[in-house]
Amino acid sequence: MKQMVLVAALVAVVIVIVFTLHSKQPNPTILIFEDGEADFRSGVDRYTKDNKLKINPVTIRVDQPVSEVEKNLRKYHSCYAIGPRISSEALTLLPYLEKFQIFTIAPLVTSPKVVGKSKYLMSLSPSDELQARDLVERLQKDLRKSTVVICDRNNIAYSESLFQMMVQFSPLSFDCLYIDSVDELVNFDFSKYDSVVLIVDGRVAGLVAQLALRKGFNGIIYGSDYAYTDALITTGSSAVEGMILYGLFDLSQMTKFGFTSLEHAGSYDALMVILTLVSSKIKTTEASNYLQGKTFKGATGTFTVSSDLSVFRTTNFVTVRNAQFIADEVKK
Q1: Lowest-pLDDT range, 25-39, 139-153, 215-229, 277-291?
Q2: Quick one: 138 and 93 in the same domain?
Q3: Which of 19, 249, 251, 317 would be a feasible disulfide site paired with 327, CB 3.0-4.6 Å?
Q4: How much is the pTM?
Q5: H/E/C letters for each residue in the chain?
Q6: Structural domain boundaries enclosing 120
């Protein structure tokens, strides 16, 4: 009897110790790479609220001197991170992610100059090669004959490679302009083209669309995934009505979750993947191998992680109708 009491007491002590240790476990630190325009925090906050979880989010601005970024990252060796917004920022970060073993999910980064170059950076998007093919096919389907492609010089790692792949896949030639701001297009003759492809962010795309219409353009305006932001509609207003955009995520699934923003839906699913890694006690050095071939379903749809840490998923073209994004065409 005494022996049974002793065993019960011992079990009780062990339970108390385990509970105490568990209760003292800190909430996981998740870095969020911001640049003043990105908003990944909204998706992160939504995920923790939906799932009644607690994390320790730490925002790190990546639009500051590299020395400052490195100093901040040094404090968070072997952490998980979400972001950054654009491929050029991710390209600059890569050496420091590797140096400090920070496994990062950049939901919207697609450039082959970044994706597949490190086991510490993953995208939630398909490759730019797929996007380039789909954009060219869409231009052909819509019988476009004269196209100008306007690219963002501030995100050259993305815009240049996407344009070059479009040229590679197209039997037609494109004119191309690289810009830092819309002001550079004030004297540009849009009227001689029947299509414009905007590889610029949503705010700039909205401004370009307005300018193009004022300058006599009456063709179709297309946008890469980069232009697909809520700011496109608020900035472009009626000028972007009918604009066709490349959607990286499943719009119907995003709508079910109440998302219109790719950034919000992307960061929501990025945190889902990261917390799967954390709960499975996967170290950042092991995350790449662990994730390859695994399938997830979230706010962005269903996706499977490929060997280069991009993903396989359905994509769709989206058209702006009555100040809303409407799914237009689904591609496998």
Answers
A1: 25-39
A2: no
A3: 251
A4: 0.86
A5: CHHHHHHHHHHHHHHHHHHHHHHCCCCCEEEEEECCCCCCHHHHHHHHHHCCCCCEEEEEECCCCHHHHHHHHHCCCCCEEECCCCHHHHHHHHHHHHHCCCEEEECCCCCCCCCCCCCCEEECCCCHHHHHHHHHHHHHHCCCCCEEEEEEHHHHHHHHHHHHHHHHHCCCCCEEEEECCHHHHCCCCHHHCCEEEEECCHHHHHHHHHHHHHCCCCCEEEECHHHCCHHHHHHHHHHHCCCEEEECCCHHHHHHCCCCCHHHHHHHHHHHHHHHHHHCCCCCCCHHHHHCCCEEEECCEEEEECCCCCEECCEEEEEEECCEEEEEEEEC
A6: 29-125+260-312
